[in-house]
Amino acid sequence: MLLILLASLVFVLFLMKLIDKFKNQRFYTLLKKFPSYPTYPLIGNLNMLTGSLNDLLGNFEKIMQTHDRVFFWLGPFPVLFLKKYDDIATVLTQTQHRDMLGFGEQWIGTGILNANYDDWKISRRVLVPAFSTEMLSKYVTIFKKNSSALVDRFETSADSGEIINIWEDVIKANVDSIVEITMGVAMQGTEEKGKEFSDALIEAAQSVTKQAITPWLQPRLIYNAYLKLTGKSKFIHQFHALPTKILQDKLNEIKNQENASENVQSSKAIIDQLIKGGLLESSFTEIRMRDELTHIILTAIETTGLNLCFSLLMLAIHQDIQQKVYQEIEDLFTDNDTLAADHLFNDLKYMEQCIKETSRVFSHAIVTTRRTHKECMLKDDMVIPANTFVVPLLFLANQDPDLYENPRKWDPENFNEQAVQNRPKNSFMSFGYGPRSCIGIRYAILSIKTQMVYILREYHLSTNIKELTKEHLKADLFVRSTIGFPIKFTKRKSQNHEDS
Hints:
The protein is of the alpha+beta class. The protein has helices at 2-23, 25-31, 56-63, 85-94, 105-108, 117-127, 133-153, 155-160, 167-183, 191-213, 220-229, 233-256, 260-266, 270-280, 286-317, 319-332, 341-346, 349-361, 394-397, 417-422, 441-458; strands spanning 69-74, 77-82, 163-165, 370-371, 376-377, 383-384, 389-392, 459-462, 473-475, 479-481, 486-491.
């Protein structure tokens, strides 16, 4: 009986595929002009992505080793992988629709990162004021306070000479900053929920990636059952706890204050902007507000946290570059109190080169996604059909040997003024490109710069590793280090050697 059921299922799926190909002949005719690999029933080409998350980056490299574009079956879903910056720029410029094929909706819901184009326009209109130059300048005070607290947390290990993994301390500082910035005031009772959120965030990224590359987990019903049976569904509740608390506390405040609604209308704080959106846009339900908060907190914590950790580790490895960044800081500041927003916006150029080079070598996100709403013509007249799910492989685009002489090497000179001018304008996409590029890029750079200033003025950094190779990297939705971020902090005022 079981064999008959399985055979019937395979026959039905085969018949559905034939009908689909007949109804969408132009779609498949255009896609088949792109290079592809032999496919297998049900799994498509997913056999090429099997293995652990440690293997994912290498698997993508193998798939794209001889091709710049690949027509790939992600189980039952036809997708187009792209790795060249010009192809990716064309798609990101001409296509505004994001689509994640439903993967991860249990975790992140629907917000600015994955909303359809019409909803995204509303989200952007609501949130842009919170990332204006005026508001970013106000956030610097919060960045400074939490950077000072981060420096204090490193003091114990600095006294002992211990090498520590800095990840959890950095994440706590970034949680504290984004929570206070979101609310407009420091918020009590969020430390535990912040830790739960960051832990659940890693679980979410791994789980969503596993679903995308595991054929039997792709059906939503089966994936939900898998989450319950493995106990992973608890992480979804943890993931939503922090944004839910932020939203509910603010809504309760509004109920308890007579003039609170007027304050919301005039405020540009993130939570107030979302509630204002809810007053003006019928689509901004409480669930939508929570999802938008989730996306903001997710990107603020993960993007800034990973970049800072990778950057500090690179400076610990490359002592000459660390000294150059430190000297740039000392030439500009005589006291931490002089660290103003204008300095962070306009100065510390070499530090910013380091930050951008980190985002190139250790991409914030390994991929992005789009769905074409119309036919999209590439530079050689190849046509991506309408309604195609496109996956730009950002981490490969950022390591294009046609753009970088030694693409795997971490070298801030890749972002000196001359090097940037010599590359095409649309070749650097770590923060996205086109209409749906990241609205929080300046937030991230300001936050990272502030923390680096405070840390490097207080400590000299060193490490017990000589190089971070691709064998030390793994990926889910983000690139991570398999060995953590081991750094030794030595107080500069107590050093017995000169920085070299």
